[in-house]
Amino acid sequence: MHRKRIFLAAGLTSALLIAGAAGVGLAQGSGGGGSPVPIDPSGSFEISGVQVDVKGKDAEAARQGGWRIAQRKGWEVLSQRLTGKKSELSDSVLDSLVTGIVVENEQIGPTRYIARLGVLFDRGKAGSILGVSTVVSQSPPMLLVPLQFSGGAGRVFERETAWVRAWNRFRSGGSTIDYVRLQGSGPDALLVNAGQTLRRGRNWWRTILDQYGASDVLVAEVQLRRDYPGGPVVGIFSANHGPDRVPVTSFALRVDNGDSLDALLDAGIQRIDRAFQNALATGQLGTDRLLAAHPPRPKTEEEKRAEAEAAAAAAAATATASPTPDATSTSTASFTVQVETPSAASVTASESAVRGVPGVRSATTTSLALGGISVMRVTFDGPIASLRAALEARGWQVQEGPGVLRIRRAGGSAPAPQPAPQGADAPKAQ
User: Which residues of 403-422 are buried (b: 16+ CB within 10 A; e: fewer)?
Assistant: First the structure.
């Protein structure tokens, strides 16, 4: 049975301040080096601090035996924690439940293995066997900004930092906070930087949050202070919420040498996450009312011209039409339509597809965001409910808000331009 094995490069040296904290350094089988993405975002049950002391015919046999014993002990602790009584399973069943072994500290001899380990269990399978619910109620999506100050300079994604790597190692699946964590590639370094954390303007924050599908922002900050290279490191941590950076918690941790920096940061993240979860439970992480609102956007000259033309055409049609007792009137209105545009070609394709909807007079992109959500201004003969129904009939998935529609294809990507139907090669209706 293949198992994902996770190792720790350095442990804590200051037990007074951060005793029992676990760190993760290298994931074997991933091509070497630290993982650039969260190691375990699935929300596995984690049992840490499992002590083993095993002898074997050689070092590898002793280590494998120690991990197997850690699985058994971990399962007993997990079952006791969730059901109130211990249970036992065979090693073959445990092999199918365990998703990872976290090495917190280990000593390997020729025939002996002494370690403190953590064991990760598959949440769905373990909950099914124990008969407990595994559903975790989470917050709205929160954009995480990992801000590190070192040497007097603040960095987020401008350059790779130990703080960003630590958050990538953090297993957040079991947390009640739905973190939106960025990889720092593409436009991330420009949009989410140290300067942005000091801005309070809701409009620009709203644009950034829409870009990443988040509802609010959390700023996790650490200031690293060193007495001398390789010597003691002090980390001053703070957690803040929202554009106004409302304080949630702050504390300081220390390790005796630079080799334990990763363990220091991992311990700080654990405390910050607990603080965020407590704030969510007490109602302190409510989304700012101004941040959630979309202020009206001034119309462009093209939109004004399109509306004037539509109004003139409607007036001319009304003047020439012969009124009848059962005649019905159709009003023309403009609506905002948000659409996913992963590429430049998808922008043109989306505009063409929307213009092809019956009743649509014009569809113009007014806010372009390649790789994100662009905004179109659509002039339509009828109410917004009719426009929604017409788009859904064309195969779009539609979400409706006050005067706003958000559309996407059922497959999750923007539509490609469709050629004219030709015999058997004509595209089938979705």
Answer: eebbbbbeeeebbeeeeeee
Global pTM value: 0.52
Integer Cα distance of 295 and 216 in angstroms: 17
Give Cα separations from 211 to 181, 201, 255 (angstroms): 13, 16, 38
Residue type, 378: V
Name the E strands within 8-93.
26-27, 45-55
Tell me the per-residue pLDDT of 276-290, one tens digit each, with 9 for 90 and over.
Answer: 999 998 988 887 777
Quote the tokens at residue 336.
């905002």
Residue carrying structure tokens 């390790």? 255
Kindly state the helix (H) or strand (E) to which residue 65 belongs, with its residue range.
Answer: helix 59-83
Which residue, among 12, 8, 11, has the nearest Cα to 34 in the 3D structure? 8
Greatest alpha-carbon pair distance for the chain in Å reads: 100
DSSP 103-158: EEEEEE-SSEEEEEEEEEE-HHHHHHHHT-------PSPEEEEEEEEETTEEESSS
Encoding tokens for residue 324? Answer: 């009848």
DSSP string spanning 353-380?
Answer: HHHTSTTEEEEEEEE--TTEEEEEEEEE
Query: How many CB atoms sit inside 10 A of residue 344's CB?
Result: 10
| Residue 115 exposed, middle or buried by CB count within 10 Å (0-12, 13-18, 19+) | buried
Q: What is the pLDDT of residues 391-410, one digit of tens each?
A: 888 888 888 887 788 888 76
Residue with tokens 């020439």: 320
